[in-house]
């Protein structure tokens, strides 16, 4: 049966009028960091395979991973690792049925963001 009221229904909110919430941003970042960790993993895997392949291959891989680009990818991968870990712990907490009030969601969201930045800085300073 045809829907005769199709023209009278409002459309879904578009990005121009929808205000992103902290919870939606942290959820999107969790997916992005999970995929971004693949880039860092591939770079480290290439470096390890090059080390096994011989000194010439290792020199090339080591040159890339110790360049400014490699340092940037490694630091961002470190942040992504901490962020993804903390977001996963937040989801485990939510799986217990707790932490769903608006105030708790906000505190946990900012905790994941701030905690990942602090842990990344501490890791870089220690290592």
Please, could you describe this protein's structure?
With 127 residues, this protein is mostly helical. The chain has a single domain, classed as 3 helical TM bundles of succinate and fumarate reductases, CATH 1.20.1300.10. It has four helices and no strands. It has helices at 22-53, 55-65, 68-95, 102-126. The protein is elongated.
Give the structural class. Answer: mainly alpha
The total beta strand count reads: 0
CATH class: Mainly Alpha
Helix content estimate: over 70%
How is the biggest beta sheet arranged?
A: none
A few lines on this structure:
The protein is an all-alpha fold and 127 residues long.
Question: Notable features of this structure?
Answer:
127 residues, 4 helices, elongated, mainly alpha
Topology:
Elements: H1 22-53, H2 55-65, H3 68-95, H4 102-126
């Amino acid at each position: 049966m045809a829907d005769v009221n199709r023209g009278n229904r409002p459309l879904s909110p578009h990005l121009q009028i929808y205000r992103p919430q902290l919870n939606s941003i942290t959820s999107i970042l969790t997916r992005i960091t999970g995929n971004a960790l693949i880039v860092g993993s591939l770079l480290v895997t290439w470096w390890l395979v090059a080390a096994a392949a011989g000194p010439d291959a290792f020199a090339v891989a080591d040159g890339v991973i110790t360049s400014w680009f490699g340092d940037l990818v490694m630091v961002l991968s470190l942040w992504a690792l901490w962020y993804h870990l903390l977001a996963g712990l937040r989801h485990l907490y939510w799986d217990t049925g707790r932490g769903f009030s608006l105030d708790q969601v906000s505190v946990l969201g900012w905790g994941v963001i701030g905690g990942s930045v602090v842990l990344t800085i501490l890791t870089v300073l220690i290592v």
